[in-house]
Design goal:
The complex is a heterodimer of chains A (289) and B (252). Chain A is mainly α. In chain A, a hairpin with a 5-residue loop joins strand 1 and strand 2. In chain A, helix 7 runs antiparallel to helix 10. The longest helix of chain A is centred in the N-terminal third of the chain and has 35 residues. Chain A starts with 8 loop residues before the first helix and ends with a helix. The longest helix of chain B is centred in the N-terminal third of the chain and has 34 residues. Chain B has a domain of 160 residues: MetI-like fold (Orthogonal Bundle). In chain B, helix 5 crosses helix 7, helix 6 crosses helix 7 and helix 9 packs antiparallel against helix 12. Classes of the chains: A mainly alpha (289), B mainly alpha (252). At the A-B interface, helix 1, helix 4, helix 5, helix 6 and helix 10 of A face helix 1, helix 4, helix 5, helix 6 and helix 7 of B.
Amino acid sequence: MKKSHKFGIRWGFIIFFTPVFLWLFMLIILPHLELLRMSFIGTDYYGKSGFTLENYGGFFKEPVYWLTYVRTTLYSILVTFIVLIIALPVSFYVTKIVKVKFQGFLMVLLLVPFWVSELIRIYGWIIILRESGVLNYFLTRAHILKQPLEMLYHDATMILGLVYTTMLFMIVPIIGVMESLDDSIIEAALDLGASKLTIWRKIIIPYCMPGIMSGSIIVFMLVLGSYLTPKLMGGKNALWFTEQIYNQIIIYFNWNQGSAFGFLLLFISSLIILAALKITGQKFSQVIR
Amino acid sequence: MVLAFNDSMFPSLPWKGFTLSWFLGKGPDKIGIFHDAINLRSIFNSFRVAIAVTILSTIVGTMAAFLFEQEDFKFKNILYFLMLAPMVIPGVILGISLLMFSTAVGLFFENAFGWNIKMLSPGIWLVVMGQFSFITTIVALFVSARLRKFDRTLEEAAYNLGATRLEVIWFITLKYLRPSIIGGAAVAFLMSFENFNTTLFLVGSDATLPINLYLQVRDGSTPVINAIALLLIITTSTLAVTNLYLGRKNHE
């Protein structure tokens, strides 16, 4: 940083700093502090409000709440792993195996659905999978199924939907890193007699770790915070934690309970992301690019 | 594989047994969209929100990129961390925290001064704020990626020729950044247009298109949704492909 320009530089700084600070302070810091405050406020029988731990207590006392919480977290981790396992070979294929000519074409194919909204993609799956849907139509036509089968509203369908909607958020960062991996390293390993599994474990995965981590963080967060897919594809009695939050805030109008839930969700997502970063030895500011 | 699926998702519709009637019925339904007041209104709302969010987040996002790439100040790391935070905060949380905060501020103003500020109750403005809060981060990351590659000696040269800092930024750095700013703006527009999670809590009665579509899908779908979906897919893909194409051209 050159400090030689006496005039202007502080002005430049103020002009850049003020809006950014206002944005972060007004829209990120203060709302979350308010969320935290609301989560500790309760109303007693006389309508007086005051500090309470009741909202968090209610969460642990009611099995429905914390079961949903645990379920949501575990499923999010599961989905992230499934996405990762599919994304690695796909990005390897796109970056290393496909001819350069088709690479651009494939990338466009990969990126375009990325922009079509989640809702529409889920709707597409609903059309295909529902009882009167495309798949059932063909299966009954081909006499594989006697009766149309309800394929929607199972946990497996929901996982499928979540994997599908978040896949690209994993593939794109991994491709970004994998592109710079030197082919000759892999070739050298092959020449030295390394098995494919060893190459993946010792060379490709460690090299792609930044991409894998940023993809995993985004996917995990998206899945954990998703509302549409579990709601529209998941079972009727299988709630996602975001639905609990929605119910508390919009339906029961219990904002304090809702804030407590919101904070718990924020807590678990930050905790798991931090843990994942610690385990793999990556830095937050390097991973999010 | 998954992709091929996506491509065939909508062309596959006419194969369906009873979709023939859907398909034939689409003619009147397509006209239906343009006469469907609720859907039309939601599309209009989405456009308003997306345009506002794009303008705001592109300006602030670019400023943030300058701030973090070119300025040095105390607590820079903390602020940078804060700027990245919206990337890892679930959209639902952003939505509810902003809802709580704006309600609290609104209540405060009403109790203290007797002002009833419309902007602070759920509605279009709050949606704009909510989306702005995290889309700005994305624009900022987009622009800083290019700013990082900028050759600072160009700026030095301009300073030596007597330019002020703001002149340098306006005439040189911004010119250099233009592709990434436009790219960032396009991303911001698309993200805003289809945002659901944050919007859900802030929207009030003026539903945006995703919210409106969601309600229709949830309560039983009609071919109108397919028509809208088809239109949306075509529009967003065209936009996305154009953006990618332009991006690639600039890259070369």
